[in-house]
UniProtKB/TrEMBL annotation:
Residues 6-76 form the Transcription regulator AsnC/Lrp ligand binding domain. Pfam families: AsnC_trans_reg. This is Lrp/AsnC ligand binding domain-containing protein. InterPro entries: Dimeric_a/b-barrel (IPR011008), Tscrpt_reg_AsnC/Lrp_C (IPR019887). Coiled coil: none annotated.
């Protein structure tokens, strides 16, 4: 499985509706509204790069209210327990 994070700019007058529309897309596992340079961040989990293209290019970017996006493909994930286990030496 591939994970991608899509940073989404949206029309400020329809952020909640746009966020829900993004969340309703197959392959999108989470959507966050946030402060800062982007309005929404979507986590996408799909089988391959073609899946990312389908979800982002053909679905997310075509939604009403989306004004732009940037996609970041993740290589590896880390969690605090995994990081601690990686540095544990026979304890």
């Amino acid at each position: 499985m591939l994970t991608a994070f899509v940073l989404i700019n949206a029309d400020i007058h329809s952020i909640p509706e746009t966020a829900q529309a993004v969340a309703d897309i197959a392959g999108v596992t989470e959507v966050y509204s946030c402060a800062g340079d982007v309005d929404l961040i979507a986590k996408v989990r799909v089988r391959d790069h073609d899946g990312i293209a389908e979800v982002v290019t053909n679905r997310i970017n075509r939604l009403p209210g989306i004004t732009g996006s940037t996609t970041h493909i993740a290589f590896r994930s880390y969690a605090s327990e995994e990081t601690e286990a990686g540095f544990s030496v026979g304890e």
